[in-house]
Amino acid sequence: MENWLIWVILAVVVIAAISVYNGLIGKKNQVENAEASIDVMLKKRFDLIPNMVESVKAYMQHEASLLNELTALRAQAQSGGLQGEQKVALDKQMNAAMSRFNIAVENYPDLKASDNFVMLQRTINEVEEQISAARRAFNAAVTDLNNAIEMFPSNLFASRMNLKQRALFEIPETQRENVNVGQLFGR
User: Fold this and answer.
1) CA distance linking residue 154 with residue 167, whole number of Å
2) Cβ atoms within 10 A of the Cβ of 141, count?
3) H/E/C letters for each residue in the chain?
4) Rounded distance between C-alpha atoms, residue 28 and residue 146, angstroms
5) What would the pLDDT profile of 71-103 be if each residue is shown by its tens digit?
6) How many angstroms from the chain centroid is the CA of residue 118?
7) Is the full-model pTM beyond 0.90?
8) Which residues of the chain, if any, have pLDDT below 70?
9) What is d(CA 29, CA 37) in angstroms, rounded to the nearest whole number?
10) Nearest CA to 22 among 151, 161, 166?
11) CA-to-CA distance for 142 and 165, rounded, in angstroms?
C-alpha cells in the first residue's frame, strides 16, 4: 500500500513539473508569435514610408531632415538583426518621427488635399492601428511570461530554462502628455 502511495505522489509531481514546463514554453512561444506579428505590421509601415516620402517631397522641401530621418529609421529597421530591446527603442523613435511628420503635414494644405496623399495617409493610419493592436497582444503575452518567470513554482523552471524577463512596448513620455485642444485651434 505504501509503494502505491509513493508512486501516486511521484506521478503527481512529474505531471505537475511537465505542466509547468509546457506552460512556460507556451508562454515563450506566445511572446515570439506576438513579436513576429509586430514585425509584420512594422514591415507594412516601413514599406509605406518610401511612398509617403515620394508623395510629399515636392511639398515639404523645408522638412527634408524629417524625411531623411524617416528614411534612415526605415533602413535601420530593414537591416535586420534587431533584438527585442532594440525593436522597442526603434519603434519609439519611429513613433516620434511619425508624430512630427503628421504635425508638419498640417502646414501644407495642397498636400492634404491630394487624393493620393489622403489615400496613403488613410493606409498609414490603418497600419498604425494594426501595430497598436499587435503591441497590445505582445504586451499581454510578455506580461504573462514575466509573471510566470517571477512566480513560484514556475520561477524554478524558468531560471533553469534560462528564460529572462522581456520589455514591454510603451509609449514615449511625450505622447502621454494631455493634448492642448485650444492650441490645436490656434487659441
Assistant:
1) 19
2) 21
3) CHHHHHHHHHHHHHHHHHHHHHHHHHHHHHHHHHHHHHHHHHHHHHHHHHHHHHHHHCCCHHHHHHHHHHHHHHHHHHCCCCCHHHHHHHHHHHHHHHHHHHHHHCCCHHHHHCHHHHHHHHHHHHHHHHHHHHHHHHHHHHHHHHHHHHCCCHHHHHHHCCCCCCCCCCCCHHHHCCCCHHHHCCC
4) 10
5) 888 888 888 777 777 887 888 888 888 888 877
6) 25
7) no
8) 1, 57-63, 111-113, 171-187
9) 12
10) 161
11) 8
Q: Which three cell numbers stand for residue 172?
A: 514615449
Amino acid at 121: Q
Q: How far apart are CA 54 and CA 129, in angstroms?
A: 23
Tally of residues, the chain: 187
**Residue 66: CB atoms within 10 Å:** 18
